[in-house]
Structures are given as structure tokens and as C-alpha cells.
């Protein structure tokens, strides 16, 4: 059974052996939060769409605003759950852990939950995967890498990319192990012998094979236990991070859909009111704008869902520590059926709307085009030098200054090279990816 005293230990990546953090004005987890806020990957979320392309006439959420809101909900969940944990386990208070610190862990982890997402959202993830699965310029690498590495390349996963970025020396975040574990919803690599479909934590994967050592280091420090030889149990706070995201995208995507005119106002009210139960008063909707009413209903619904989620966490906390509980908390709360109905309407009227599908189609074209151009140039330079052209040279000069362009060849496994290429492409904002695609394909010129 996992122990909270160890799960909440304050150590972090980069600490020297034997290092003990000193109590300061900011807790170790507040330091995590601040480092994330000021990091380049987090700032890039401001130009990555959540669902909709950014319209000129109405506000809809970007990945940045979504992440800030998920973090706010996560802090509330973590702090409320923390009050219960400290009362139940007096040893936590003796070790100096407060409910605010537990809230800080969930807030910091929630802030990063989308940090590994590529341009164009989930369509971007699929586009990167499809490039290696189906495109000739991607499939050509298959015989040069190991089987488990090829599984990584053919299954791009934003959660795993996020973990890679958070432990990368490139960004120097050096987060606490507790924040990283709370971030990791899927504590398993991409290729496993058997996936238990009943366990939510095995639905996807949470780290690429070359981050296995980093994950093992974190798991060992916190005392995360294994479900199988290849999969670990979740850190219990990861359930709260997941719930914060589930709550926000369910309610706020619906709000955005209503703002964009894809879901009617009356229908939106009918979807949110069952969550509010007796707190819903139709008279309070009178003499106010639709935007004001949407904002009020959204706030009330989120407040109710936070309360229900904390109650579910309290009920199953011991089972989480034993590894017996492995479901999404929002699937078992009293409002689960109402959230499911919102999801069904959102899929039909929002996620499959013309404006969203057009964005996704553009994302496939842009990312496949960029990966193709850069992948061909790299392959020609290191594996088919007789085909290395002047165009390839120009393309490779567009890579970042710190891109690892030396030391590759026929006898060297190119997996790290390809991971660096994916880092470059997936780290782009939507707008930068589109502009670069146009330029490398001669559709537009710099300055035009």
C-alpha cells in the first residue's frame, strides 16, 4: 500500500543526494507552479487552440486559458481533499504538510496537463502518429530503430510528450517528484504485453521509452507501486488532476459551443440545470444577458462538480493507495450521467462541427507537410547522402540552434534524432506551424 507521507515528499529532479529542502516563503510546490508559469512551453499554449480556431468576434478558450482554469479547479479539489487527508493522517501535519500544499501540487500538475499537446489539438497528435505509420518519409525510419521505439513514434501521445518536456534539461524546470507524479495520468510505456481495459490508468501511456529511467527514479522516490511488471499504480492526486480537466472541458467546451452558436442557449441551460439540482432558479436568468447567465451557470455547475468529486475521492482514497481503484472520478459522481449527456451533445454539435473539422483537416496537412520536409532532409543527410540536395541544406538550417545535427549515421540508432524533430514540431504554436508550412512549401515568403 502506498503511503501519503512518502507520496507527498518534497524532493525534486536535480536534487543532490541527501539534499533536504528548507522551509521558505514559498513551498516547494508553489515554486513548481511559478516555474511552469514562466516557462516557454507554457507560454506557447496561448496560441494553441482548445477546440475552436480563434475567432475575431467572440472569446473562446485557448490551451492557455483552459490550463489556467483547470489549475484553478485542481487547486480547489486538492485543498479540500488535503483537509480530509491531514485530519485522517496526523503524521502529515507533523511533517509540515498543509492542505494548501496538497492543493498546490494538484494546481501545478493541472497547469501542465496540456503542455505536451502539439499544434491543432488531438488532430495534431493523430497527424504525427500517422506520419510514421503511413507516410513514406516516416515509414522509412522503421528499420533503423528498435521495436519499442517504433511504437513510440507511431503513437504520439501528448501526455508522454508533456512528461518528456517536464523532465527535460532543456527547459530546466526541475519539478518536484510529487507534481510530476500527479501530472502522470497514465503510468506506463507505449508498448506493453497486456493492457487491462478495466484500469483507467492503462488507457493511454504516460512516458516514452527513453524517459523510462526518469519515471522509475520518480516512482522509487515516492513509493509508487507496480500493477504489473510494466505498469504502475497512479499517484492518488492524479485522479484529481484528471477530474479537474474533465470538469472544465465538459462545462467550458459547452459554454464555448453556445457562444459560437453551435448549441442553443435553452439547450445549454437544460444540460447544466440538472447538475445544479435545487440550486437552479430560472427566475435568476431574467433581465440578464445570455453571456452573464452562461457565466453564472458555468460557475455554479463547476462548484457542484468539485464538491461531488471531493466526496468521491474521500470515499475511495484508501483504495487508490492500494491500487484497487482505477476509474475516472467524474464517471462515478452523482452528476456522471449529466456529464455524459453533455459529452454526447458536444460530440455531435461541437467536435464534429464544420469549423472544428476544417481546423483538424488543416492540422493534418500542415503537420504532415512539415514532418515530411524535415524528415526527408535528415534522412538524406545521414542515410542517403547521394540524395542530399541544396534544398535539404536550406531546410535543415531552419532547425533550432541546439538541434542535435551531429553524430548520426547508418550504424547509429536515430530514435533520439527523431524525438528531437518531434519536439520541434509539436512545440510549435498553431500559427507558427501554419506560417512555416507555407514558407517551406513556397506558398508564402518571409514578410508577406
UniProtKB/TrEMBL annotation:
Segments forming domain HD: 63-250
Molecular function (Gene Ontology), one example: dGTPase activity
GO BP annotations listed: dGTP catabolic process
Xref: Pfam families: HD, HD_assoc
UniProt-listed SMART domains: HDc (SM00471)
UniProt keyword terms in alphabetical order: Hydrolase
NCBIfam families in the cross-refs: dGTP_triPase (TIGR01353)
Name this protein carries in UniProt: dGTPase
Origin species: Algoriphagus ornithinivorans
